[in-house]
Specification:
The complex is a heterotrimer of chains A (820), B (224) and C (362). With 820 residues, chain A is an alpha+beta fold. Chain A contains 25 helices and 20 strands. Chain B has 224 residues and is α/β, with parallel strands linked by helices. Chain B starts with 6 loop residues before the first strand and ends with a strand. Helices cover 6% and strands 53% of the residues of chain C. Chain C has 2 helices and 25 strands. In chain C, strand 12 and strand 13 form a beta hairpin. Classes of the chains: A alpha+beta (820), B alpha/beta (224), C mainly beta (362). Chains A and C meet through helix 3, helix 4 and helix 6 of A and helix 1, helix 2 and strand 4 of C.
Chain lengths: 820, 224, 362
């Protein structure tokens, strides 16, 4: 043990003499761990809240019986099934408006609720009586309670006439859900004797076959390990994970370069230790121990940083998930012990991964080989050839992913392979460019300039690779976001064609509002709208009824359509389908789609495909009149109005006064547009933030590698100084050299970035969200990024160069003194 | 040949060949050599005569093709990699032209790390070495802050801290000017006498070789 | 599970139970979850005139009530079995009966089968008002989920026979037919059964004369069985006397044709309150005073960390009765939400026969 500690002390003495190198190593590990674990914390937070939602009294985790058409059914079926031996428990679900917000109301039956389904008030537990006895209680999560701004025990004010039960907090509930007894729910939702589904418990025993009890009225839904919310948000989290991963690898690049350099510099020390009787096995063990110790320290710091990053990003992530998927994520970050352990593990694994090459070299270290600190530079050519070969192979794999892949994962694999190939190929490309320059140079100093740049290439390459990756991802993501925001804005202009939108509280109010509006001269048109929910191939689909009106005919943006699509819709046997649905069901113009409706399947011919950005569900647009024929039960509460813009504010305040409508059910076009755009901006705010972090990490990589290389540059620079080039000139040359390779790298990053953008738009987005955006290039944005990259390189290069310019001549002389 | 003293190093019929460009080049072709305790032997020879190879074989840094090397009562061929390392650590002192000092350790730590790792640190002996080598004022300096002669004195001190059976030196004064080289070597000779260990030094300088007890020459792979 | 156990144990410790009238006090305690004052519920007073079939049905004005059937059975090979079918009712709030889910009735069913080497049980819960569980007097029907006890064609209201009975769990099932020639027997003073010196009481009648035939299935292996069965009907509103911690209850079929019902309410102060009823083959009954009953627990069996007296010595000098009771299966533990011991026993001594033993509050 003592021996190990002494060897460790000798190894560690290197870092004391080279604190910058240690800082580089730690910064690399810290940023890798921080970004990775930050993203993991966000994902974990979201997933655990999906779990809470899914586990809330029979989400998809529990087997259930549902009505054939998805509608509610009489609770007598529940009784019949219980009497036939089925361990079922009824659930009634609906929505309830409180304070202008819509909540999911879940009516449960605590006495029969299977124990594994949820932590409800139960037999033998306190609170059962107050929960089931009218007026009952509303169980809500602590988040929902604070959102309502009410104390526990208060009864929230309802929009309708119903009196709501008092609130009680249940910590395990997901936010946004209100749980009441089924009897209370039937009253609040005005569905007496009706249930939405029956949860099936695990209890064994004889069961009469389902058909013998309920005929074909109900059908069984097997439990699903993954909830709808998880499926819908998968792509969002994959996006986050991909960014976390990218940052992690950029961080590892730094670690790798720091460890590689340290290893080369420590070669004489390692050889001396071996010569003085430290066995190879002992030395390698201690090297690994040293690395793991550093990784643990850096991992801890990284985790703290990761926590801070996650906490900073959480509001945007939560807003995006709520806006896009209606998923409720608590705003307070809670982390499990697993997260800390995983974070430390990833730091250690990352460090070992980054150090693999160095450790292998240490194992094969021969005591007798001449001690040459920069032997790697001599093997440069061989190394370039090898790395380029690997780059080509990875590029081939990228082609394979593009050609054969059909999933989001393969989309990201394509991106990863593309970036990796580019990074690996970068030194070879730079070498070609620099060799060209050297060939064309006439003046001696210029020749030296190019030749020396080539010689430095391997030292720079890791930092430059990191810069290339960060820049190209920046270009790619920037282009995608910009493309999206433009497309989205234009699309919103078309989609939000009405000037005012109303959602009445019920059909009666809607009728009253319509009657009132008909008397108003400023209202040019009243456009009724309706929405029905159904399922196609097990996935939720919205059927949207749109009025046959010029407003839609003139503005509704279509990607593809038949010539007479509006006329065809009128007949009620045709529909427009959203791009997502078309891709998912592989439907094209002219194909037929079967839509389950209460009165039997509704066969629609596809006459048009439209973009429906941001909607996780598939959508079919049909003629409004046809929709209410097929779905007679849907509420007819949605109205769009065409109003002269100047008259909008007055009309809205009149509507609000007359019918008690508020911001949730009365909204004008501008507000709706602003809200939609805001949701999307927040979605990409997360991406942009991670992007900036990645660029920052790449900047650190460049800075640290230039700093560590600075000292080893002296032997190359001293002869030039000796032949009469001033330190100032030397510094200028060094700066020029650094900037020129950085510029070349940045220029290479632009086309690569556009390629990345193309992959994101044409492959990843299509797989993740189901829509494809038109591809645009934004030159101004590219120039801006180029400027940022050059500036970052300049800052990174400045410090070592300034150090050189101010260097004491003695240091340069010493180079010769040591040459003896 | 000194008699009556314990033989610390005994080399018998040692052969070693390298493969180079498809050709077998015999470097050592049956070398015989012994060094007794307290004996100071200079090993000379032309460049490429195999002096360093012989020294590396004796230090257990490389393996011989045939023949035997015994360090006191231990045959090197009986030892594995870990055994050879332990032998170097506990019983040998090495002073080479290169990789002598660890740049990130100060003089004090450079002196003691081998004896610390070997677990045989002797504070009194350390103090005596510092005194005799004149390193008292330099203990907190780093190798890069020392002159060549000072660095080599530290290296000799480090090698002798473990009180080795045998001190091996490969051109220890190769980088030093004549006066400094003489000083360093004089110190080494005195300290070897003080510890009573064997001393085998490779040098190309006949002048320095002449200052030792015995002088052997390696030529065409054989001791002459 | 532990949580529930603790709750019912705490209930026992608190003592404020309907133990005097509840066969499984934890059930009542857990259901009501409060101090069980009888206020607002109908009181149990002496001098009630029982009316059938109405009194076979539920009495929702009273707080708790049960339909409790136990059967001692044998198969053709002579292997002994026990079967239990119980339906508990509780009114959670006094007042007029509400419709649908707002109904104040809570129902709990327990079913079990016992063999010397096996004891299987299951439980079910239901709320009243929707039809998942209930009891109807005419035609006679008591059910919870798929478990059912119903009157067959020609059922006579005074004998409560013939009946058909079925229940099943994950690993057992049974179906029995019950016949009887004698009318039901009123317990206590004409159906008014005292449970303490301080006036706690219940309405209580039994049908101890059932002959049973049918089948029992354990682990998917059905066997035909025959034997005797005993049904208790009891309802009350009043809370348990303070200081009563649990009880031991026996229903015995003597080989000589007599039936014997015995119970003992254990009290903190050691002055246990016992009562009994000696039922002759012709339906005549004789009340046995507390002082005349000696019930001595013998062997203790450890179950779920409790010590349960599974063998008993019983002496009633006035009847010249001195018997030793041995369980068919000492592990007849009902590990339900409100756990207790209930299982078939055999006895020998001055008299021989079979019966059922129930013990709560250990």
């Amino acid at each position: 043990m003592n021996r190990i500690l002494w060897i460790l002390a000798v190894l560690l003495s290197h870092w004391r003499r080279h604190p910058m190198q240690l800082a580089t190593l730690l910064i690399g590990l810290i940023s890798a761990t921080a970004l990775w674990s930050g993203v993991q914390a966000l994902n974990q937070q979201a997933r655990s809240s999906y779990d809470r939602a899914a586990a809330t009294f029979g989400g998809a985790r529990t087997a259930a019986l549902v009505g054939r058409s998805g509608a509610t059914f009489p609770q007598q079926l529940f009784v019949d099934l219980r009497r036939a031996g089925w361990p079922v428990s009824p659930v009634l679900e609906g929505r309830i408006q409180i304070g202008g917000r819509s909540f999911r109301l879940l009516g449960i039956e605590p006495v029969t609720l299977p124990a594994e389904v949820g932590n409800a008030p139960a037999i033998g537990r306190a609170g059962l009586q107050s929960f089931v006895t009218p007026p009952g209680e509303i169980l809500v999560s602590p988040e929902t309670l604070s959102e309502l701004g009410l104390p526990e025990g208060a009864s929230p004010p309802a929009s309708g006439s119903a009196v709501l039960p008092p609130l009680r907090v249940a910590a395990q509930l997901a936010p946004g859900i209100m749980v009441v007894d089924i009897g209370i729910a039937q009253r609040l939702l005005k569905l007496p004797g009706q249930v939405s589904r029956l949860l099936i418990g695990k209890a064994g025993g004889h069961r009469v076959p389902l058909e013998n009890v309920t005929g074909d009225k109900l059908h069984l839904i097997a439990p699903d390990a993954e909830s709808d919310l998880e499926r819908l948000t998968d792509s969002f989290h994959l996006n986050l994970t991909a960014f976390g991963m990218l940052s992690f690898f950029v961080g590892l690049f730094i670690v790798n370069s720091a460890i590689g350099l340290a290893f080369e510099q420590r070669l004489p020390m390692l050889r001396t230790l071996r010569a003085c009787g430290v066995s190879a096995r002992m030395l390698n063990t201690v090297l690994v121990v040293e690395l793991i110790s550093l990784a643990l320290v850096a991992g801890l710091v990284g985790l703290v940083c990761g926590y801070l990053i996650a906490a900073a990003l959480l509001p945007d992530v939560a807003a995006s998930l709520r806006g896009l998927y209606g998923a409720q994520i608590p705003g307070q970050l809670t982390l499990k012990p697993e997260w800390w352990i995983a974070g430390l593990a990833i730091s250690v694994v990352g460090a070992l991964l980054a150090a693999t090459a160095s450790l292998l070299k240490a194992i094969r270290l021969s005591v007798l080989a001449a001690a040459q600190p920069y032997a790697w530079q001599q093997a440069q050519h061989r190394w370039l050839v090898l790395q380029s070969t690997v780059a080509l192979a990875v590029l081939g794999a990228a082609g394979g992913f593009l050609w054969l892949g059909d999933s989001l994962v393969s989309g990201f694999a394509l991106l990863a392979a593309l970036l990796l190939a580019a990074a690996l190929g970068l030194p070879a490309v730079l070498e070609l460019v620099l060799a060209q320059g050297q060939r064309r140079a006439k003046r001696a100093l210029a020749v030296w300039f190019w030749a020396d740049s080539r010689q430095q290439l391997s030292g720079w390459s890791l930092a430059l690779m990191a810069l290339l990756l960060a820049l190209s991802v920046n270009v790619g993501v920037g282009t995608m976001v910009e493309t999206f925001s433009r497309t989205f804005t234009a699309w919103l202009d078309g989609r939000l064609a009405a000037d005012v939108y109303i959602n009445a509280s019920d059909d009666a109010q809607a009728t009253a509002i319509k009657a009132w509006l008909r008397e108003r001269p400023e209202v040019a048109a009243i456009l009724p709208g309706g929405r029905a929910e159904t399922q196609i191939n097990g996935a939720p689909v919205e059927v949207l009824g749109i009025a046959d009106h010029a407003t839609y005919r003139d503005h509704w943006p279509l990607l593809q359509s038949t010539a007479d699509h509006w006329a065809r819709l009128r007949a009620g046997d045709s529909g427009l389908i959203s791009e997502q649905l078309a891709r998912r069901l592989k439907l094209a113009i002219g194909d037929a789609v079967e839509v389950p409706a209460p009165g039997g399947n509704w066969t629609l011919e596809v006459v048009g495909i439209y973009a429906d950005y941001g909607n996780p569900k598939g959508q079919i647009a049909v003629n409004f009149a046809a929709l209410i024929r097929r779905f007679p039960d849907i509420p007819l509460t949605r109205l769009g109005l065409r109003v002269a813009p100047a008259a909008v504010p007055a009309l809205m305040s009149a509507l609000a006064d007359k019918f008690g409508l508020d911001g949730r059910n009365l909204v004008d076009q501008a507000t709706l547009k602003a809200e939609s755009t805001q949701i999307f901006n927040r979605t990409f705010a997360v991406t942009a933030a991670l992007n900036a972090f990645t660029l920052g990490v790449a900047g650190i990589a460049l800075l640290t590698s230039l700093l560590t290389l600075g000292n080893s540059r002296l032997p190359q620079l001293a002869p030039l100084w000796a032949i009469g080039i001033t330190r100032r000139q030397l510094a200028a040359i060094e700066l020029l050299k650094t900037m020129s390779v950085a510029l070349i790298t940045a220029l290479l990053a632009l086309p690569l970035g556009l390629l990345v953008a193309w992959c994101l738009i044409a492959v990843v987005n299509v797989k993740a969200f189901g829509w494809r955006l038109p591809f645009h290039v934004f030159p101004l944005q590219l120039i801006e990024l180029l400027g940022v990259a050059i500036a970052a390189s300049l800052v990174a290069a400045m410090i070592p160069v300034l150090k050189l310019a101010r260097m004491q001549p003695a240091a340069l002389i010493k180079v010769f003194a040591d040459e003896r | 040949m000194t008699t009556g003293k314990q033989i610390v190093l005994s080399v018998r019929n040692l052969t070693k060949a390298y493969r180079s460009a498809g050709e077998q080049i015999a470097v050592l072709r049956g070398v015989n050599l012994s060094v007794a305790a307290g004996e100071r032997v200079a090993l000379t020879g032309e460049s490429g005569s195999g002096k360093s190879t012989l020294l590396h074989l004796i230090a257990g840094l490389d393996r011989a093709d045939a023949g035997e090397i015994r360090l006191a009562d231990t045959s090197l061929s009986d030892l594995g990699e870990a055994g050879l390392a332990a032998m170097r650590r506990d019983r040998l002192g090495l002073v080479f032209q290169q990789f002598n000092l660890i740049p990130s350790l100060n003089v004090r730590d450079n002196l003691v790390f081998q004896s610390r790792i070997a677990g045989c640190h002797d504070a009194a002996w350390h103090a005596e070495l510092v005194e005799r080598l004149g390193l008292g004022g330099l203990l907190d300096r780093y190798p890069e802050q020392l002159s060549g002669g000072q660095q080599q004195r530290v290296a000799i001190g480090r090698a002798l801290e473990v009180k080795p059976l045998l001190l091996l030196a490969d051109e220890p004064t190769g980088n030093l000017d004549e006066a400094t080289a003489d000083d360093v070597l004089a110190l080494a000779r005195d300290l070897v006498a003080r510890t009573g260990c064997g001393f085998l030094m490779v040098t190309h300088s006949a002048r320095l070789a002449a200052t030792l007890d015995r002088h052997v020459n390696l030529s065409a792979g054989l001791i002459t | 599970m532990n949580d529930r156990l603790r709750i019912s144990r705490r209930g026992f410790a608190g003592g404020a139970l309907v133990l005097a009238v509840s066969r499984t006090p934890g059930f009542a305690q857990g259901f009501a979850g409060l101090g069980m004052s009888g206020e607002g519920f109908a009181p149990v007073v002496p001098g009630k005139t029982f009316a059938f079939p109405a009194d076979h049905g539920p009495h929702p004005d009273y707080r708790i009530e049960w339909w409790y059937l136990t059967a001692n059975l044998v198969d053709s090979a002579g292997t002994a079995y026990g079967a239990q079918w119980t339906l508990f009712r509780q009114t959670t709030r006094p007042g007029p009966q509400q419709e649908g889910w707002a109904n104040q009735q809570l129902w709990m069913g327990h079913a079990a089968v016992t063999r010397a080497d096996a004891h299987r049980y299951s439980e079910a819960f239901a709320r009243g008002g929707v039809g998942q569980a209930g009891v109807e007097a005419t035609p006679y029907r008591a059910w919870i989920d798929s478990w059912q006890m119903r009157g067959l064609d020609g059922m006579r209201e005074n004998t409560l026979a013939p009946l058909e009975l079925s229940a099943s769990g994950a690993d057992f099932a049974y179906a029995l037919r019950l016949d009887a020639d004698h009318a039901v027997v009123l317990q206590g003073e004409a159906g008014y059964s005292r449970k303490s010196e301080r006036g706690q009481a219940s309405y209580y009648f039994s049908q101890p004369y059932f002959r049973a035939t049918g089948s029992i299935t354990i682990d998917d292996r059905p066997v035909e069985v025959t034997g005797q069965a005993w049904m208790d009907r009891e309802w009350s509103s009043q809370p348990l006397a303070s200081g009563q911690t649990g009880w031991d209850w026996l229903s015995l079929h003597l080989n000589s044709g007599e039936k014997l019902m015995l119970f003992r309410l254990r009290q903190n102060d050691g002055h246990h309150y016992a009562s009994g009823n000696w039922i002759l083959p012709d339906g005549k009954t004789r009340q046995i005073a507390s002082a005349d009953i000696t019930m001595t627990p013998k062997t203790l069996t450890g179950i779920e960390g409790r010590k349960i007296p599974t063998t008993w010595d019983i002496a009633i000098p006035s009847l010249n009765l001195a018997i030793s009771c041995v369980p068919l299966n000492a592990n007849s533990w009902m590990g339900t939400s409100f756990p207790y011991w209930e299982g078939p026993i055999g006895f020998a001594g001055s008299h021989g026969g079979v019966g059922y033993l129930e013990m709560t509050g250990y």
